Design the sequence.
């Protein structure tokens, strides 16, 4: 039993994991924006911290708070993401998908390291799209100022998360095991920002999608028994070789440098 921090734990897979961990007796801390959903979780004994994770400043504040309040963190599970059909620029001048889906995970992974390193068997699970080979980081325009599309933004941030796993395992000198997990097409995800036609198509296709409980089952296993290796990549139930071109250490190094520079 330990402390589990869940980013994007107010809905979808994150919420299912949070409730499942609370049932198992863990102390669960959920990060998200929706206060009503947060209050409902609080009624189940879960700590809810309202935060907009697309803001670097708010990520930093919540990390400070977590480090003070929870000196030992056993697991960090990263789920927060949102679709943006049109390019959105945050108050800090960043493309929102990049900020929310990637930068927040970078900040939380490295920022919570001291608390993770105090745990007996710490683990970070980054739920994204490892194994996907389409798209990638636009090195010369990571803020996607030209040729923006929702899919390009999702694929870029997804790949950045793959490289974050590689970079964290390589650079952090943390004891925390890093798991990149692709849940496959799952019956979750906020579709409200999407165009009506796409919403309809996804609703029809979701008959074939995995139930949320099935998608989070492997995550419970990663938390119960963290892998021995510093980095593990899993697509549904299939272990992926770390030699995949999408997990290239040179690209990871390049992204870590770019991110450090961006964050000043
Ligand atoms: N569903 C799928 O088929 C599928 C397939 C492959 C990969 N994935 C990946 O799996 C992860 C979880 O997906 P899901 O389907 O469970 O998503 P979801 O149901 O849409 O949940 C997303 C979570 O992110 C939070 N969030 C969104 N914007 C936020 C912000 N600005 N600040 C803080 N929290 C924010 C939401 O909470 P609030 O509304 O409270 O902010 C919610 O808790 C995502 O990374 C997704 O890319 C999903």
Sequence:
């Amino acid at each position: 039993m330990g402390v589990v921090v869940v980013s994007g734990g107010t809905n979808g897979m994150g919420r299912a994991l949070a409730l499942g961990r609370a049932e198992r007796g863990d102390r669960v801390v959920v990060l998200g924006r929706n206060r009503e959903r947060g209050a409902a979780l609080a009624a189940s004994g879960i700590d809810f911290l309202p935060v907009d994770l697309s803001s670097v400043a708010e990520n930093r504040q919540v990390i400070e708070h977590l480090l003070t309040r929870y000196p030992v963190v056993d697991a960090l599970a990263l789920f927060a993401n949102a679709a943006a059909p049109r390019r959105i620029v945050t108050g800090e001048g960043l493309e929102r998908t990049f900020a929310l889906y990637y930068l927040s995970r970078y900040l939380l992974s490295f920022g919570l390291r001291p608390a993770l390193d105090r745990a007996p068997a710490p683990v970070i699970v980054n739920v994204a799209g490892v194994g996907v080979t389409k798209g990638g980081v636009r090195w010369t325009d990571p803020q996607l100022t030209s040729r923006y599309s929702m899919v390009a933004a999702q694929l870029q941030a997804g790949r950045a998360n793959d490289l974050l796993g590689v970079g964290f395992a390589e650079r952090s000198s943390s004891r925390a095991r890093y798991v990149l997990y692709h849940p496959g097409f799952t019956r979750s995800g906020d579709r409200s920002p999407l165009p009506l036609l796409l919403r309809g198509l996804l609703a029809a296709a979701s008959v074939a999608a995995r139930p949320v409980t099935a998608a989070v089952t492997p995550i419970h296993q990663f938390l119960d028994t963290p892998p021995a290796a510093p980095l593990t990549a899993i697509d549904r139930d299939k272990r992926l070789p770390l030699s995949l071109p999408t997990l290239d250490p040179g690209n990871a190094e390049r992204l870590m440098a770019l991110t450090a520079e961006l964050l000043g």
Notes: The chain has one domain: 3-262.
